[in-house]
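Team,

Forwarding the record for the chain on the shared tracking sheet. I've put the sequence and predicted structure together so nobody has to dig through attachments.
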Amino acid sequence: MHTSAQKSPLPPGFSLFGDDEDEGHITSAAPAGVPAAAALDPAHWLVCTGTLTRNAEVRVKPVGSEGDAAPVVCIDLDQVTPTAQAVHVEQVFTNATRAKAEAFASHLKKGMRITVHCPRPAVRMSFNDAQHIEVQPPHLIDHQ
């Protein structure tokens, strides 16, 4: 059992969720686009822990339905629990909080173990080395 206290790599009072008083913990305030009831439901969240394979970086990417450019903290994790797979993670910031995104990214260094919380509807899988793609006959496709 690991008993030593973990020290946060982030500056004191730094918040991952935009509220300097919540000290980076998930609060009852729902992230944009997440119904308040879902924000409190653990089944709504995918939580995984992994090791950074390189330093985090901020990229400007199109986000939202309008495709507006916004700063995005990008990280790559390896040995992600529980499946031991690699995962690419992005956290969108507003243009007004770009400095906060840069400060956050500057503290995320290769080799650190971090835990990511993501709303399940926002999780997207990518198969980067598919070996076979097969077209299904129309009668086998679920048209829900």
